[in-house]
From TrEMBL:
Cited Pfam families: Nol11_C (PF20998), NOL11_N (PF08168)
Segments forming domain Nucleolar protein 11 C-terminal: 359-670
Organism ancestry: Eukaryota, Metazoa, Chordata, Craniata, Vertebrata
Organism: Melospiza melodia (Song sparrow)
Keyword set, alphabetical order: Activator, Nucleus, rRNA processing, Transcription, Transcription regulation
Protein name (record): NOL11 protein
One GO process term, biological-process aspect: maturation of SSU-rRNA
InterPro entries: NOL11 (IPR042859), Nol11_C (IPR048897), NOL11_N (IPR012584)
GO molecular function: RNA binding
Keyword Nucleus assigned: yes
Main localization, broad class: nucleus
Subcellular location: Nucleus, Nucleolus
Domain Nucleolar protein 11 N-terminal: 1-289
GO CC, alphabetical: nucleolus
Length: 672
């Protein structure tokens, strides 16, 4: 998100419309979508074409799909029927019951109560609102009517389940949040015969910011004591001011709020202690952490409700490392005093008094010696991996890179490599790391980052490519890089690994190429196809670039700036890989993390698009382009010949199925 980098994108055909939010199935790691109300699509991250994904046409319109971490996927239909995805896929055209023919669904949510999924949805019929609680596994359904509120109606809903009780929160048009408690009932004959029960509600909050009523548009539950509400406050003569607010429901107080001057879409999402909302034209992600609710904290916030710029509840902004250290230094004396009082207890209870907190470590990183830095960071790395620890390590790496920029002599190379290799970091967690590695010409660290980071900006990918191509082969021989991706197919100087074959594979041979092109292949052609134009170390580094994800639109402008000689060298290497792949029947190179045929061809096309004019003008590129053209032309013709006999091959396959397995016969088939 920080680099605005798309990692996956799929689209439906023109005229088709996605009619409910796409979800991810936690159990199968598949995406589930519905377009045109009834057409179900299921695909995985590696699938490129949505039109070729699994398709099932259902018998009724779908309202929402809900995915639960341990409960699979549940499909809610517009008529109120619910099916698990597995049951639905067994018979997509099965009849779906219509439970709410005269009602319209307004909201739905899925939850886990123990090992049992529970689906809750609300409906509206004229001025009446109803609540349905359904347990799909038990085929249990309970319907309730919501108590009416004079001069007000519900705008949105959210819910959570605690101790066999559903807590339904309703945001009304009168700027109030009401709470409805619904016990999860056990099905009995008496319950089935019982008339529709009316649910009473209780006032939970009156929404007000700085004395003005907050017109809420969306709310989410954070924990049992806190909710977040997105809304706006009227501003006479101007546009209403929009706020994201967090409330303590236990003490009915405003915990903190944030002004959103660029406006929002009115929608708020919450997932894994992060808020997601559209602010202006961008998606904004805000981290938060719910502390244990206390009266002192709630009253303190209430008294200071006029000035809510500083909050320990939400990290509204991603602070720069300098700001973070500055704020920590102002609290250092207090922290150290508290630590001295607690050391005795911690020594007795945990025996870990020797390890520093992340805050203390960030302060020490400013000027402590390399030895101390290495010891403390190894203690931090040794901790059990958690989401908080990943973020903390990202902050530590950022602090280290900031110190490297201020003091070029300070560069803990082995420590940085160990952190990247042992932790699932990303570029966005430590955005300056690769820039510092480029300045230090740390090719080994750059290779590791290219192989492990999924969100590297195209500008950095290009900078790495340029650095690898410009480094001399003699210098690379002294660099310790991972050779696993290249050592199995790159021809070394002794040519021990090179194997000659006279078998025609994938339609390529010297004779065929000469015959089809009506020209003699120059000797350079033979050498290009037989020996790698770069050394083993450089090949391994270039392979890391080929594996790095990219978006063509963002990478193409940078490739146009690649020096001509480097572009030719890179194209020669890509051509070498292309020939090597074509020598194999399965078009797969041996080795670990070797480039795929698709990666090679994509990069070759991208490089030619960016540098074609330069290539055509340079005499030294003429033979390379000519050879590449001949090779591709030969393969196209070969596959065209295969297409001609495709029908005959299918007929052979059909005859093979029709033939009796126990009958012996000799058949002569003529392919015309």
């Amino acid at each position: 998100i920080s680099d605005q980098k798309p990692l996956g994108c799929w689209s439906v055909k023109h005229g088709q419309i996605l009619t409910c939010p796409v979800v991810c199935n936690f159990e199968t790691h598949e995406y589930i979508a519905v377009h045109d109300d009834k057409v179900l699509r299921i695909w995985k991250n590696e699938d490129l074409n949505l039109d070729k994904a699994f398709k099932a046409t259902l018998s009724a319109d779908v309202y929402r799909i809900h995915s639960l971490p341990q409960g699979g996927a549940l499909v809610l239909f517009r008529g109120g029927g619910v099916r698990s995805l597995d049951v639905l896929l067994e018979a997509p055209q099965q009849e779906i019951e219509n439970l709410i023919s005269a009602e319209t669904i307004r909201w739905s949510g899925a939850f886990m109560e123990g090992q049992e999924p529970v689906l809750i949805f609300t409906t509206q019929k004229d001025k009446d609102f109803f609540v349905y609680v359904q347990k799909p596994k038990l085929n249990s359904l309970h319907k309730y009517k919501l108590e009416q509120q004079k001069l007000a109606r519900p705008l949105c809903f959210t819910a959570h389940i605690t101790n066999q009780t559903v807590t339904l929160l309703c945001l009304y048009t009168n700027h109030c949040v009401y709470q409805v408690l619904i016990p999860l009932q056990q099905d009995t004959e008496e319950e089935e015969e019982k008339e529709e029960e009316i649910l009473s509600k209780s006032l939970l909050l009156k929404l007000s910011v700085s004395g003005a009523a907050l017109k809420g548009t969306s709310l989410v539950v954070l924990d049992k004591d806190h909710i977040a509400v997105l809304g706006n406050v009227p501003d006479p003569g101007r546009k209403p001011k929009e706020f994201l607010t967090i409330w303590n429901t236990k003490f009915q107080t405003l915990q903190t709020c944030k002004d959103l001057p660029q406006g929002t879409s009115g929608q708020l999402w919450c997932y894994e202690e992060k808020f997601f909302l559209i602010h202006g034209k961008v998606l904004t992600v805000i981290m938060y952490k719910c502390e244990t609710s206390s009266l002192a904290a709630a009253v303190g916030k209430l008294k200071d409700s006029q000035s809510l710029d500083v909050s320990s509840f939400v990290n509204w902004n991603t602070l720069e490392e300098e700001e973070l250290v500055a704020s920590l230094e102002s609290q250092e004396s207090v922290a150290l005093k508290a630590e001295s009082r607690m050391n005795l207890r911690s020594n007795r209870s945990t025996g870990r008094s020797g390890s520093l907190s992340v805050e203390q470590l960030l302060i020490r990183l400013k000027d402590t010696s390399n030895y101390v830095v290495e010891i403390e960071l190894k203690k931090l790395i040794a901790r059990a991996p958690t989401l908080d620890l990943q973020a903390a390590i990202g902050c530590v790496v950022t602090a280290l890179t900031d110190r490297c920029k201020k003091n070029p002599k300070f560069y803990p190379q082995s420590l940085l490599q160990e952190i990247v290799e042992t932790r699932d970091l990303s570029y966005s967690l430590c955005p300056d790391l690769m820039a510092v590695a480029l300045e230090q010409k740390d090719l080994q660290l750059l290779q590791i980052c290219l192989e492990r980071f999924p969100d590297i900006p195209e500008e950095i990918t290009y900078a790495c490519l340029k650095a690898f191509l410009s480094t001399s082969e003699d210098h690379l021989k002294s660099v310790d890089v991972n050779l696993d991706s290249a050592i199995c197919y790159v021809d070394v100087e002794c040519n021990d690994m090179e194997v000659k074959t006279e078998i025609l594979e994938n339609g390529f041979s010297e004779e065929m190429d000469q015959d089809m092109c009506d020209t003699k292949i120059p000797k350079e052609r033979q050498s290009d196809g037989e020996s790698c134009p770069v050394g083993l170390q450089k090949a391994a580094l270039l392979n890391a670039v080929l594996h790095s994800p990219y978006t063509e639109t963002f990478l193409l402008p940078h490739l146009k700036n690649l020096p001509a000689q480097q572009a030719i060298l890179f194209l020669r290497y890509l051509y070498y890989l292309y020939v090597k792949c074509s020598e194999k029947v399965n078009t797969t190179l041996p080795g670990i993390r070797s480039p795929t045929i698709n990666q090679i061809m994509d990069w070759m096309c991208l490089l030619l698009d960016a540098q074609f004019t330069v290539m055509v003008m340079l005499p030294e590129a003429k033979d390379l382009l000519s050879n590449l053209h001949k090779f591709v032309r030969a393969q196209v013709r070969f596959y065209s010949e295969l297409n001609k006999i495709e029908g005959s091959l299918r007929e052979l396959q059909r005859l093979n199925h029709l033939r009796e397995s126990q009958t012996y016969s000799i058949e002569v088939l003529e392919i015309v």
